[in-house]
Amino acid sequence: MPRPVQAQPSPGATAALSLQATLQQAEALSFSDTAQAEALLRGALAQARALRDAASEGLALVILSSVYFYNSRYAEATQANEQARALARAHNLPLIEARALSGLGINARVQGEFGQAMEHYLEALRLTQLSGDQENQMRILINIGVLRMNIGEYDLALEAQQQASELALGLGHRVGHSIATVNTVVSYHHLGRYDEAVALAAEHLPVLHELKLRQNEAVMQAYVTHALVARGEPARAAELARQTIPMARDTGNREHLVNLQSGYGRALHQLGQLDAAHEQLRSALDTARAYDLKVQERTLLAYLGEVCAARGAWEDAYHYAQAEQSLNHELHQQDNERRAKVLGVQMQLELHKREAEAERRRNLELSEVNTALQQAQDHLAYRAAHDPLTGLANRAHFQAETERLLRQGGAHLGILFLDLDRFKQINDTLGHDAGDELLQQVGQRLTRQVRRGDLVARMGGDEFTLLLPGLRQAADAERVARKMLRALAAPFTVQGRELHVTASIGVAVSPQDGHDVTTLQKHADVAMYRAKQEGKNDVRTFSAPMAEEASERAELERDLREALGQQAFTLHYQPQVDLDTGTLRGFEALLRWQHPVQGAVPPAKFIPVAEESGLIVPLGTWVLREACRQAAAWQRRQPGVTVSVNVSPVQFNKQHFTATVREALDAAGLPARCLVLELTERTVLQDVAAATRQLERLRALGVRISLDDFGTGQSSLGLLRHIPIDDLKIDRSFLPQPGDTAPAQRKASALIATLITLGQALQLHVVGEGVETGEQRDLLAGLGCPAAQGYHLGRPMPAAQAEALLTPAQAPGDPARAAPAPVPPRPPTRE
C-alpha cells in the first residue's frame, strides 16, 4: 500500500517561521550579547521587508531599539522606536505600537524628559488595556517604577516593581520577573534596606546566570556593591566590583559601569586604599561627564571630596564640595521641574482608570492580575493629585484645576492663600505629630465651609489655598475668606490639648488681579504677607498699591534722610563667644532703626534703599563712630574686647574710607586692634585689585579685616590667598539644620571641617555665625572652631545689656575673679 505524501510548507511559510525564530533568538541575546543581537536583527529587518511582514519588521525595530539603549546609543534607540510606531499605526498593530511607545518612554526618561516619558507610558498602557495585553502591561509597570526611582519616589517605585513581579509570575514570564526583581534590589538600596537588597540579590543571582541576563546582573551587582559598603563590608564589596566591572564594560552600559566604579572606590576608601579609591572615582567621574550622567556626577563629586579630605588634600576637597554644591543646586531645580511635569501628566490617570473600568465591564476575560493593575493605577492617580497628610488636593492638582477654569472664562474666579500664624511654635513646643494632627483638622474644617465645586488644597507646610469658581462679584471672595477665619477661631483639640489657631489670608480674583495661575497665586501670596505684616489673623485683598514698591521705597528714602538728621538710629550688640571657654571675645554691632510710624524697620528693608540712595555713606560713618565710642568705653571694663562693624560695598569703595576709619578710632581713643571690619564676598569681588589695595591701607591702621559669608557666592580659594584678611566667618547656611537627613548633616559637617581647617592653615581666625541650637554650637566646637555667634549664644541687645556681659578686669589678689564668667546660652528663638 503506497504511503501518503505529507504536505510540505511553502517557501514563504518556511521563511516566515525562520524569521520568527531569529527574532526570538535576538530578543534573548539583547540582554547578554548586544553585538550578536544587533547583527541578527539587521538580517531580520531585511528579511521582514522582503516578505512585506510589517508585524515582524516592527518587532525587529523595537528589539533593535533596546539593543541601542543598552549600549547608551539613545538617539538611535529613539529613532528605531519612532519608526516602529509609525509602522504600527500604518498597519493597525496596537501591540507593536505599545512596545514602541514604552521604548520611547524609556529613552525620554534617560534624557531627563520625565513628563514626556510618562505620557508615552500612559498611552502604551491604554493600548495594552484595550487589547488585553498583560505582558506589555507588566513591562510598562516596570518602566513606571524606574521613572519613580529617577524622581526619588522610592516607596512608589518599590510598589510598582513588586506589582510587575507578581504580574510576571502569573504570566510565567521569567525575564520580566527577573527585571522586576533586579529593580526591587535597586529600590531596597535606595530605601536603605541593605540587608534585604543583599539577600534578594544572592537568591536571584542563579536565575540571572541561567537566563544569561548579563545586563541585569551588572545592574544588580553595582547596587549590591554599594549595599555592602553601607553594611561595613568593604573587602567583599571591592571584590564583587572588581569581578563585575569587566562584564559592565562588555555590555556597554556606561551608567552602570560608573555605578560599579563608584562602589569600588567607596570600598577602597573604607579599606584605607585612598590612592586607588581616588583613581577609581576619578575614572568614574570622567565617564559620567563624558556621557552627561549628571546624577552620578553629583554623587561622585561627594565621594571624591571625602577621599580628598581623608588624604589631607583640603583644597581639592573644597573644590569637589563646591562643584557638588553647584551641581546639586542645578539638579534640585531640574528635579522639581521634572516632578511637576510628571504630576501634571499623571492627572490623565483618571481618564485611563475610567477607560480601563469600562473595558473590564465589556470584557469578562480580563484576569485578576489586570484588576490588581487597575487598583495600582487608582492608587498612583490619587497619590499624584492629593496631599498624603491631609487628603486635600496637592499643588499640582490645584494648579491644573485653576488653569482649566481660567481657560473656560466666565464668572470671577477667586483664590485664597491661607497661612497659619505661629504654626512653627506649635511644632517646636508640642512636636511634629501634634502639628500634623492640627493640619489635618484645619483641612477638614476648611473643607466643611466651602461649596460643592470649590477646591481646598494644601501647598505644603502650613499653607493652604482655596479655589472659588463662579463668584458673582469679586467682593464675595473676601467674604468667604472672613468666613474661614471665623471657622478657625473655634478651638482645636489636639492630643488632649485645646489649641487656639489664627491665620492670615490673602485674596486674589481673576480677571482683575491676573489671567494666569502664576500671577493669581503670587498676588494672593503678596496679600497674605500684607495681612501678616499688619498684625496677622486678618484678610487682605490684593490691590495695585501692594505692587507699587517704588513709591514705598521713595517714602522710605525720605524717612531715612530725616532719621539720619535726627540721629534716630541705635546700635545693638551681638556677643561673639570663645567656644572653648564660653567667655566673651567681642561684639558685632548691628544697626537698628525705630521708625516713628512703622516701628522697628528691618535692616534688610532699609539698608538696600540706603545703598541705592548713597545715604549708606553718612549712615555707615555714624555706625563706625558710635561703635568705636562704645567699644572704647568698654575697654575700662574688659580690656581688649572687640567690636565688629559691617561695611557696605558703597562705603568701602569710597577713597576716603580709610580716613573715615582713622578719624573714628582717634575720636573714640579706641586701639585699632579692637576694631574688626566685616566685608562680604560681594564687596571684594566687585574689583579684587582695588579691594586689595583698600584692605592693605586699612590693615596698616591696625584694624582687623573679616570676610563674611565666605563660600556663599562666587569666591574661590584664590581669593583667600590674595586678599589681606584676618578673620573668616562661616556662613549660617553651611550649618546643619534641624530636620536635615543624616547624609545632609554629614556633608555639612565635612564642609565646615574643611572651612575651619582651611582658615587655620591660612592663619585666619575662624568665627561660626548663625548658631541657633546647642547641636550647632557643639558641632562647631567639636570641629575646632574657636569662636561663634548666634541667637543660641546671645541675641543682639542694647549697649546697656551688652555691658553686663563684660568680664571686669581682675584686681590683684582677687581670687573671685580668677576665671571669667561664661556667656549664658540663649534659647534658639527669633524675634
From TrEMBL:
PANTHER family: BIOFILM ARCHITECTURE MAINTENANCE PROTEIN MBAA, DIGUANYLATE CYCLASE DGCP. Residues 808-820 have a biased composition (Low complexity). The keyword rRNA processing does not apply. The keyword Calcium does not apply. Residues 799-831 are annotated as: Disordered. Residues 821-831 have a biased composition (Pro residues). InterPro entries: Biofilm_reg_signaling, EAL_dom, EAL_sf, GGDEF_dom, Nucleotide_cyclase, Rev_trsase/Diguanyl_cyclase, TPR-like_helical_dom_sf, TPR_rpt. It comes from Deinococcus arcticus. Residues 553-810 form the EAL domain. This is GGDEF-domain containing protein. It comes from the Bacteria. Pfam families: EAL, GGDEF. Keywords: TPR repeat. Residues 411-544 form the GGDEF domain. TPR repeats lie at residues 98-131.
